[in-house]
Amino acid sequence: MDEDCIKSTGDYFLLCDNEGPWSVVLESLAILGIVVTIMLLLAFLFLMRKVQDCSQWNVLPTQFLFLLGVLGLFGLAFAFIIQLNQQTAPVRFFLFGVLFALCFSCLLAHASNLVKLVRNGVSFSWTTMLCIAIGCSLLQTIIAIEYVTLIMTRGMTFMNMTPCQLNVDFVVLLVYVLFLMALTFFVSKATLCGPCENWKQHGRLIFVTVLFSIIIWVVWISMLLRGNPQFQRQPHWDDPVICIGLVTNAWVFLLLYIIPELCILYRSCRQECPLQGNTCQVPTYQRTFCVENQELSRARDSDGAEEDVALTPYGTPIQPQPVDPTQECFIPRAKLGPQQDAG
Question: Where does the record say this protein resides (predicted)?
Fold first, then answer.
């Protein structure tokens, strides 16, 4: 009985391994990350109904998709806490790259939108940003499907591969994710150049998030390919190294990007009139119900150039009032005197 029980639960031994407390710590951090991510998802759903600036609202669906990717990363940590077997191996090789590709694609879409906003105040539509995020992550999905299908259908399976082969294949499978990370890093640097100052704070958040992500990835890949063999800890340290990098990067996404973005969004929702475009030289992105000031003077060709000026009910000319295009207010149409109605 005891031998059968040990064999049947051998795959899950690391969950209760007293010599490996890393599994308990990472399991706790992953569960806490799942709870925090769900709370942030609910907060985004609540604030989406209160956002009045279209340029801010357009990025919210992409950030919501980003949070779903982060939620998947925290859930994926349990596939590395349980030791490698025929069930967890395909999940690891498929979801690790796909989820990270989705997260970095969302950051790339947001950074590309900020490049337009800081230069000319024009924003992508929310559908365009979603297409960019999903389209950029689609290639990694195709690559992962082809690799897992080839491994599962050919003679040599994951369990028959050496630890060195598994690690090399795992890293090589993430080359496209590394490309997305580098591209997002350079695009986020471009958001720091432009006349619209207030949009640059979003670009700084993406820049810092990707910078810390690059550092995390360099560390765990170096340990996986070089450090563990040199310390003669392969394959005992392989799963902890990957899982630590996974959970750490997921928390970096939350602490350095999502939570600051949520704070900025909350502050803008409390203001009556958004101030995002105030420092832009040509703020062209406005809400549809904000109307421009009507022309109060027009030319009329009747026996010469005679001007028709709008008058108040007391007969005095109406002076044009400058309108701040960033203020969300309705401007009533000027009432015309009887002379103008007759004309």
Answer: Cell membrane
Token code pair at residue 22: 């890393």
**Domain 21-272 CATH assignment equals 1.20.1070.10:** yes
This prediction's pTM = 0.75
Contact 144, 99 (CB under 8 A): no
Whether 318 and 334 have beta carbons less than 8 Å apart is answered as: yes
CA separation, residue 183 to residues 65, 85, 108 (Å): 19, 34, 8
**pLDDT band at 258; cut points 50, 70, 90:** very high
CB–CB of 105/133 below 8 Å?
yes
DSSP symbol at 301? E
CA 65 → CA 43, 110, 194, 211, 228, distances in Å? 14, 12, 27, 21, 35
- Residues facing residue 308 across a β-bridge: 298
The DSSP symbol for 317 reads: B
Sign of CA dihedral 307, 313, 314, 318: negative
Q: What are phi and psi of 292, to 5 degrees?
A: -80, 160
| Distance, CA of 40 to CA of 37 (rounded, Å) | 5
Please give the backbone phi and psi of residue 305, each rounded to the nearest 5 degrees, phi first. Answer: -90, 100
pLDDT per position as a tens digit, 148-197:
998 888 766 788 888 898 999 999 999 999 999 999 999 999 888 866 67
